Every structure is written in C-alpha cells, then in structure tokens.
Amino acid sequence: MTSREYFKTLKTIYSAFLAGQVLFALVIVFLVYETMTTSFEDEFTQILLMVFAAVSVGSVTTGFILFNQKMEAAQAKSWLNEKLADFRTAMLIKVALMEGPALFAIVGLLMTANVYFFALAALLIVLQLPGFPTKFHVIEKLRLSHDERKVIENPDGVVGK
Q: Is the pLDDT of residue 161 over 80?
C-alpha cells in the first residue's frame, strides 16, 4: 500500500462517518421541520437532554483518552506500517465514540422535534472536523522520524502491505 492509497482510504472512511451523520440529520430535520420547537416544558425532553449530556461527555472523553493511549503505544513501535495501522484503529475508535452521541442527538430531534437536539448534533459533527486525517496530522500525532516522514510525504512511498 502506498502513502497515497493509505490516506485516500483514511479520508474516505472519515468522510463516510461524517456524511452519514449529516445526511441522517438532514433527513430528520426534513421530517420534523414543521413541528420543531425550543420548549423544555416536556419532561421527556428534559430527561433525554440529561441522558444526552452524560452520554456525550462520557463518550467523547473516552474517545480522546483511547486515541491518546493508542498514539502513545504506536509511537513506541519500530515499523511505520504498525504505527499507521494503530493510527487508523485509534481514528476509527475516536470517530465512532464521537458519532454515537451525535446520532443520539439526531434521534432525540426525531423523538421530540426540539431544535436544541439538532444544535447539539451539529456541534458534535463540527467537533469531529479537526480530526480529519491529513499527512500533517498523522506525522504530528505519531511523532514520526525524518525518514518516516519522507515515506509518508512521498505519494508513492510504500507504507504497508
């Protein structure tokens, strides 16, 4: 696998996660648009928001912690292909743990038609954007050596099987 192929795959996976959330949110907004509200008078909405807050904080925090642990483990490895495999795994774990609360908020929007759930989902989606996998991001997070950087920066550099 070349560097170009590796990053194309990473970007495709990441984009698919984001696109799924955005498209799901747009479909739900289309379905509930005419009945959307900003009211918190409904007890169910209040409970759902509290559960959302707990799930979001726990999930996002766990995602960042696991990502950082995986990066530390990857940095200690000797082979570039192992480091890149660990980065891919860590990225998938982090984006999945951030996607969960976003989908929860979108379902909350469907169930309550409360516009705040849409805003919370949008916020979580936007928070995922800085994690988009670029060469610079991978080099920085894995703290690659000069030789490893040269391989990554060369589109035809071989980075794995």
A: no
Residue 60, CB-side half-sphere exposure with 13 Å CA sphere:
17
- pTM attached to this predicted model: 0.89
Report how far Cα 41 is from the mean position of its chain's Cα atoms.
Answer: 32
Share the mean pLDDT of the chain.
93
How far is residue 95's CA from residue 77's CA, in Å, rounded to a whole number? Answer: 23
Q: How far apart are CA 57 and CA 42, in angstroms?
A: 23
- What is the per-residue burial (b if ≥16 Cβ within 10 Å, else e) of 78-92? eebeebbbbbbebbe
Q: Buried (b) or exposed (e) across 15-49, using 16+ Cβ within 10 A?
A: eebbeebeebbeebbeebeeeeeeeeeeeebeebb
CA distance 71 to 84: 10
The vertex-27 CA angle with 22 and 32, nearest 5°, equals 125
* DSSP helix/strand/coil, 154: coil
Two tokens, residue 35: 């009945």
Answer yes or no: are the C-beta atoms of 63 and 97 closer than 8 Å: yes
Half-sphere exposure (CA, 13 Å, Cβ side) for 33? 6
Type of residue found at 100: G
Name which of 68, 77, 129, 119 is nearest 98 in CA terms. 129
